[in-house]
Amino acid sequence: MLDVQGLECRYGRIPALAGVSLTVADGELVALVGANGAGKTTLLKALSGVQPVHRGTIRFDGRDVGDSHARQRVQMGIIQVPEGRQVFAPMTVQENLELGAFARGSQDSISRVFELFPALQEKRNELAGNLSGGQQQMLAIGRALMGQPRLLLLDEPSMGLAPKLVAEIFARVAELKAQGTTILLVDQNARAALSIADRGYVMETGRIVLDGAADELLHDPRCSRPTWGCDFPTKGRR
Description:
Blueprint: E1 2-11, E2 14-24, E3 29-34, H1 40-48, E4 55-60, E5 63-64, H2 70-76, E6 78-81, H3 93-100, H4 110-116, H5 118-122, H6 133-145, E7 151-155, H7 163-178, E8 182-186, H8 190-196, E9 199-204, E10 207-213, H9 214-218
């Protein structure tokens, strides 16, 4: 479904991505892990069409989408859940979800969101800004699902959440995968991300330095390198 080859992005003269190549097959859940500043978010922004690409190709369903604007990519089904949730705080849960359906989706999608996240149905008339961090993350994912994504890009869904909430969010992501949603998951919590993924990539300073089956990466001693930022808990760590 997604084929990225030799992708390069820059911020001025500073390279952010240096020849990144990866693929995501239809129905796969692929994890992209690495330290803060490795270039993971820049990659997702490039895939979404909000970060200019200096060199390389992005193909979606066999079509080169490099010249397509962000709105066009949403209409194709490439939908991103941004880092930091970015819900519309002064609007209700219901209104946030309805906005998610604006460009592509259907209001009928809301029943699927409430089935996946029952807490959102209970709080559908509350302001999004009054929700807990975990509930806001659920809302951000639900808002993306309203657009009926063919490729769901998840950027750091575990950020700032307690371990119990991280487990709940990742369980819901695994459920989406089981339902057939194709997902590219970016997260610093490598163990949580790889534990639900089919395949994984490790990123460092704008490059892919390791890739393979998720189970293999989970047990690969190279993933414990501090500079790779893989958050594998060690004995005594909290």
